Amino acid sequence: MRGGLIIATVLVLTTGVFAEQRFAVPTEFDSGYTKPTTQHPDPRASMMQYVDLGVLIATLGLASFLTLKFRRRWAIFTLMIFCLVYFGFVRGGCVCPIGAIQNVAMAIFLGDYTLPLVVLAIFVIPLVFTLLLGRAFCGAVCPLGAVQDVFLLRPLRVPGWLDQALGLLAYIYLAAAVLLAATGSALIICRYDPFVSLFRLLPLGKWIEALTRGGTVPGGIASITISIHLLVLLGVLVVICMFVGRAYCRFLCPYGAILRICSRLSLKRVTITPEECIKCRLCEDACHFGAIRQPTQTHGGHDRTRGKGLLAGMVLLAGALTFAAGWGASLLTPYLARTNAQVRLAEQIWREQNALAARSDDINDPGEVFRRTDTPIARLYDDAEDIKRRFLIGSWIAGGFIGLVIGGRLVRLSVRRRREDYEADRGSCLACGRCFAKCPMEQARRKGRSVSLTTGEDE
Amino acid sequence: MSDKANENANKSKRVSRRDLLRNGLRGGALVGLGVSTGMLWSQSRTEGSVWQIDPLKCVACGNCATYCVLATSAVKCVHAYRMCGYCDLCFGYFEPKHEARNSAAENQLCPTGAIRRTYVEDPYYEYTIDESLCVGCGKCVRGCEEQGNGSLYLQVRHDRCLNCSQCSIAEACPAGAFVRLPAGAPYLPKDMEREG
């Protein structure tokens, strides 16, 4: 016991500012008093995480079945509402695959972070489902998508060029989120997630917990504070989503950006008409997400050599864009690096050392805390330089990725495609089921006037 | 391929070429995903990690009381009895300018009266924390740290903590005292329990 105390004391002393053993510690009491041991309650049971994982797999499977085989919008909508209630209000919207991007990035790039297996599974499983069975996650499982879908009142049509341009925001968000997580700076997806505040306004999970435990939830029932900024952001987004269908999914969601790529490669996908398309355009009107592509005109005198030249040019341009965007992003390194607390501290100390900023003796000031710890300034500078180097490499990669995405879009736009029917775009389709619900051929099929149903096959 | 005569014959082939590309890419994506998942799997832990305060870095600035997403912070003062001097004049308990050495509210440093002072025997007093009252402001911790033995310290209490992916207090901590610990050993006790 004494030995331990000495070790503890030495430990405390070596850290400089902290208290030493100023008063003798009584070891024996005449009154027979024994010292209580300090209690350390265990983390809350994480069993629910496994339930979440099971529900995720089950709902993904069901959603895929509903979009590919059962093809009923009401069923997809019902599943979506269930997932909104369960993943959103009951489970508070956390853990979600969107935020898990950052945890996976941290696990890859930060040595000292260990990824919980459940989080890894929650990140990977929707990707696998999308690669095989299409983007049913977005349409029916994601509670964030469901919120936007529920609020969709008067959908406006976003012009194609604007849709393409805004769609790039999601990739920029993805690149920034991975960069900031991989450098251990910030988890922006979680910090700026507006939907979590909505789920926290109605914490069903807490209420259920209170009921089952008889009203004693540590920390109370409506105990989570909601930031005003995020509520304002939520309000703005909800208003936008009333008029622009699923604006977050289409233009911001970083996980949606990954799913978009997976969905382009998917084995099965949503088909609109079960039989020959009669080109009635009803599906195009039904889709609020700009995902329906018209049949292509039949070109008689199409110049293939010219098309090839254009394609080659676009591929070269994509390469150039990758480099240019990487270089552009690398110029932002000093600003990006300031999201890191260590870098900020080093810059603050440097300014104070060079008399460019006044010192504060407030205990809330990181500079003041740093001075109290007697850490050599050189080490702080070295650490900050190290992080800045990581930021430099990271912003080259992140910028290059954004450039590659822009280039990829240009290449894709320059490739001529043949479409005989109205089709859902592989990347943009969110598998909500509105298109085939409106398709007259599908209606006819349901009334039994037709039998052959081919689903999921690509042409 | 540019031969016009072959174009019609090639039309069906062109579709299948695109399919081939897509199948190849999908296979590659699945294999890549599998391999990277496997690699991450081997590094991951079933239990995951939780947030904790390193008491040797903590300066008890008070941010824990205000930045936690819980209305009442999950950070509480914890007492390492084995470091405590059981002093009559406790710098974690009494206001620096207290009128009398008794438990009257105006003498107490704790804004919520969460520390209970009980007489043990002359000259010793025991100090216990009522966690349901503690808001984690760390006023007592600073008093004890600066003038006493430093037996009072702040810890994230895991029966309350929601374990946010990014802890809001960790972001606001001026000392960088928040660390991630394996959920199997989620505390950093200040007394010798920590050493073994």
Structural overview:
The complex is a heterodimer of chains A (about 450) and B (about 200). In chain A, about 60% of the residues lie in helices and about 0% in strands. By secondary structure, chain A is mainly alpha-helical. In chain A, strands 1-2 form a two-stranded antiparallel sheet. In chain A, α4 crosses α5 and α18 packs across α20 (about 375-415). Chain A is globular, with a radius of gyration of 28 Å. The model of chain A is unreliable at about 1-20 and about 450-459 (pLDDT under 50). Chain B folds into 2 domains: about 5-45; about 50-180, no CATH class. The longest helix of chain B has about 35 residues, at about 5-45. The termini of chain B are far apart. Residues about 1-5 of chain B have low confidence and may be disordered. The interface between A and B is large, with 85 and 87 residues.
Distance between the first and last residues' Cα of chain B: 76 Å
Instruction: Report mean pLDDT of chain A, rounded to a whole number.
Output: 87
Overall geometry of chain B comes to: elongated
Lateral strand order in the biggest sheet of chain B: 1-6
Which H/E pattern describes the elements of chain A? HHHHHHHHHHHHHHHEHHHHHEHH
Strand count of chain A: 2
Largest beta sheet of chain A, briefly? 2 strands, antiparallel
Largest interface, C-beta within 8 A: A-B, 85 and 87 residues
Give the overall silhouette of chain A. Answer: globular
Helix content bin of chain A:
55-70%
Helix and strand content put the structural class of chain B at alpha+beta
Helix content of chain B: 25-40%
The multimeric state of the shown protein is heterodimer
Distance between the termini of chain A: 77 Å
Q: Give the total of beta strands of chain B.
A: 6
Number of helical elements of chain A: 22
| Weakly predicted, low-confidence segments of chain B | 1-5
Largest sheet of chain B, if any? 2 strands, antiparallel
Instruction: Please give the radius of gyration of chain A in angstroms.
Output: 28 Å
The succession of helices and strands of chain B, N to C, reads HEHEEEHEHE
